[in-house]
Amino acid sequence: MLKALIFDVDGTLAETEDLHRQAFNGAFADLGLPWIWTPAFYSDLLRVMGGKERLAHYIETFHAEEAAALRPRMVEIHDRKTRLYGELVESGRLSLRPGIGRLIAEARAAGLTLAVATTTSRPNVDRLIAVNFPKGDAPFDVIASGDEAARKKPAPDVFDLALARLGVAPSEAIAFEDSVAGIRSALDAGLPVLATRSLYTESHRLEGAFSAVSDLGEPGAPHGHLSGHVWPGGVVTLAALRDWHTTATRGQT
Fold it and tell me: Which listed residue (10, 160, 178, 215) is catalytic?
């Protein structure tokens, strides 16, 4: 039986990545650092999972001669970036991707449990949820964030943590991801993965996902099918997920 849905955040719940890029650039400017991350450059940096790890990689790779002096400033830079990102989110510049709100509502009404498994930090998750699920109507039973995982994606740690907190087996859940690293992470945790392509993962080969689509789709606004399982009407519904899950698990017995 399908008991839980587990969602990545950046690029999956919402197109957050460009706001992260803008927040990094804002932090650099505020702190007198002459750095600007363009969309193309940031797309390459996203191969490093986790904002703190991304910043450290950037400093060590592109400013190696200054790295010793810059390392002590990393906490200050990232804290400023997190604050600016929160302000961008709260200004209303970030909404859920197509189909996300609908599917979450369907799952909650049916009594499924919902979780987040992300490499981003907890304050970023909380702000996204607060803006898109107002009045304290937070839909997630469990949030496993990058701050809590020993290893970032593509390691399975954050999905393992989400599963443990939910109290479900990997065979009883489905993961939603948008990147190569995220898919690998979920698969290594034993989870089947449905992939949606985001703005910053257009070049990713979403291999390993049992289905890859442009987004979850809405009635009257179907998604684009990329590979794998085809969804009726171009919309991923809870009923269709349950049908796929029943067939997939029956084939494993």
Answer: 10
Note the pLDDT of residue 26.
98
8, 157, 160, 215: the catalytic one is 8
- Residue 136 is predicted with a pLDDT of 67
Other beta carbons within 10 angstroms of residue 4's beta carbon come to 23
Which has the closest alpha carbon to 24: 15, 13, 36?
A: 36
pLDDT at 94: 83
Domains belonging to the chain, first-starting first, are 4-15+96-252 (3.40.50.1000), 17-90 (1.10.150.240)
DSSP 139-188: --SEEE-TTT-SS-TTSSHHHHHHHHHHT--GGGEEEEE-SHHHHHHHHH
pLDDT tens per residue, range 108-138: 999 999 999 999 889 889 989 988 887 767 8
- DSSP string across 14-72: B--HHHHHHHHHHHHHHTT------HHHHHHHTTS-SHHHHHHHHHHHH-GGGHHHHGG
Q: Is position 10 annotated as part of the catalytic site?
A: yes
Catalytic (active site) residue 8: yes
Low-confidence ranges of the chain (pLDDT < 70): 136, 251-253
